[in-house]
Here is the input.
Amino acid sequence: MQKLIWAPIDLSKPSLRILDSAAANGKWIEDVRKSLSAEVQETSTFISTDVTDIFFPKPEPTGISYFAQSMLEDWPESLVGTLDLVHQRLALPAANKAQVQSTISRFIGLLKPGGYIQFVEADHSIAKGPAMTDFFRLLSEIFKVMETGNDYAPQLKRWFEDAGLEDVQEKVFDIPIGAANENADIGKKGALMFSYGVRGLVDVAKTLPTSFSKEELVSLEDRMREENLTSGGVWRLHCVWGRRPVVES
Ligand SMILES: C[S@@+](CC[C@H](N)C(=O)[O-])C[C@H]1O[C@@H](n2cnc3c(N)ncnc32)[C@H](O)[C@@H]1O
Here is the structure.
């Protein structure tokens, strides 16, 4: 995606307050912090949250605070209206269709007037080969059982606009996977990441009603690895950002 932050924030300004929600191991916020000047790093607040603390790095890197927080719950009162940037990547489907817009509104409530929100989600309707098509179809079927959506990425922009954000912008990235990537090393890492990702999904799928046979489920990981390493694949990401108005109507 070329840049960690697309929202037009002045990253040279001291005392920034940045939250990464559903952060898992918190790599995004570590990379953001490292990319800033020493003065901004020292004066700013970096917060990493996830529904579970099991992925947080141990020991915790200096300058970043970590705490367990579900995006589906109210945030601590001390954070409300205080942040320059709220970021979340690849996690919004944790909010089901009935909850997704209120979840976004709670995130917007954390921003200072003039602060930005930036979300990144994947569009699972775009795939190249038959194995990746199967992977995304399986994901859709599991999301359906969970009453969540696999179509959140293309809806993000409208949800941000409907929530009253200003200057909502979107960039769509087609990330080449495996053999499709010019950089063989990065391509291979991407292909393997998808193979590991499908393993957990297949375990979940075995316990749920899906249209996949046992053989299709068991072979999916190998088929995906083979396809991505030989023909290559694509992963479409939508990055969407918007600003909380300074004066709210
Ligand atoms: C696919 S991972 C994405 C992790 C990270 N944002 C990234 O881009 O590498 C999804 C993350 O969402 C977290 N998650 C799931 N449900 C959540 C919830 N209700 N509130 C906050 N985080 C949640 C999971 O624990 C997991 O770390």
Observations:
- Helices lie at 27-34, 38-43, 100-109, 130-145, 156-162, 184-205, 214-230.
- The CA atoms of residues 42 and 63 lie 7 Å apart.
- The chain has a mean pLDDT of 95.
- The pocket of S-adenosylmethionine is lined by residues 22-24, 50-52, 55, 70-72, 89-91, 94 (CB under 6 Å).
